[in-house]
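Lab notebook, bench 4. Continuing the backlog of folding jobs that were queued last week. Each job is logged with the same field layout so the records can be merged later without manual cleanup. Today's entry covers DUF3820 family protein, a 78-residue chain. Filled in by technician R.K.

JOB TYPE: sequence-to-structure
TARGET: DUF3820 family protein
LENGTH: 78
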Amino acid sequence: MNPESLNLLLTLEMPYGKYKGRVIADLPGHYLGWFAREGFPSGELGKLIALMYELDHNDLRHLLDPLRQRPPARRRPA
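JOB STATUS: finished
OUTPUT FIELD FOLLOWS
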């Protein structure tokens, strides 16, 4: 994990599905768990969802709080 990945969790928006437009860091735990069971998407998006799943599963979402202090610039995956 690198610091840029943590920043991306707060800026990258989910590009599809029920939670389209919501940043990865704000996806609910049950949705992250579904990906863990069914398979993460390929590429950068999948890696970030897997990282967020690990943070959520291990009750570490609070590690993102200091990064939330800055207003993030949102972006969509390429």
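OBSERVATION: The chain has one domain: 3-65.
SIGNED: R.K.
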